């Protein structure tokens, strides 16, 4: 065969092969995330980081509202329309882990080190010892308080290890007329009792909300409203916005929220605010943390590329961007300083409080029926607050509607 014929054949073979390689290498990943239109540019900036590192990979965010996100997620998963990258909240992991790709084998392939993240949220985004997502944010529930009102009342600001008696005394002292010392909300009856040393599960991770310790701890928070009138009754089904609104308007001197709300709350108030740990019981301080992150869809056709993208989206630069925007206290430990310098720069004691709380964190115990439990607390707890039922009766009613 002539050399020219051989070269021609090689040329045509290579020409036919090149477009195929390019088509296989160029991958567009979809990325499901919650947020609003104000978040769009922020999430797109993170998606762009992936393409900067891997020019053959593009990431297209698909953003929906918080409630709509969780309504649509199981539908998309069942219909095979779920995205390659999926946002996941730690509190919902027990209900949705099955739609995600286990990450441990991916970690083993490149010796990925999860110790760069806050341990409590790494645990929160795992299920039965298997990692299903990597975090972008983390945080415990905190007491937000009005420093001006504490000063006007002659009260010392909360200590790191303040007790429930200290908290109650401050709430009562800060209550005058229609202005309350504290604005309660549904999740207080979960995070608060845990901080007091109570458990809502038995040793088998089954709901046991009528146990004496939990009933007693919930009752302490109920009495702030039902007996001491130091907190208003929240409406059945009400979200955290009611308590945060009262706090921002000066109608309540304290309420409980997380680091994710710090920058928006700070921007809404016209007074000096501080943060404190949740009050402890007779024992040591202990706090649950939560957060969110991203995993890879088990149905994705591009899992290797999605894993590369996941490392960028939860990497140092992405964490710095989110923290510097005040959007999230990063799950990555080294990048948390950017959030302290922006979101918490004018809020007294934030760095010390969060360091203390992470040092005293306890596992956030969850199971697949967690969301039902939280919804029942939101729905029925006002009955105890307004005196229509005892704490014991409300918790017994809730227990009767849970699978365990």
Report on the architecture of this protein:
The N terminus is likely disordered. The chain is built from 18 helices and 12 strands. With 404 residues, the protein is α+β, with helices and mostly antiparallel strands. The strands form 4 sheets. Strands 2-1-3-12-6 form a 5-stranded mixed beta sheet. A 3-stranded antiparallel beta sheet has the order 9-8-10. It is globular. A hairpin with a 2-residue loop joins strand 4 and strand 5.
Which outline best applies?
globular
Number of strands: 12
Low-confidence stretches: 1-24
What percent of residues are in strands? 5-15%
Helix content: 40-55%
Q: Main sheet?
A: 5 strands, mixed
Structural class: alpha+beta
End-to-end CA span: 80 Å
Numbering strands along the chain, what is their spatial order in the largest sheet?
2-1-3-12-6
Summarize model confidence as the mean pLDDT: 92
What is Rg? 25 Å
Number of helices: 18
Helix-strand pattern: HEHEHEHHHEEEEEHHHHHEHEEEHHHHHH
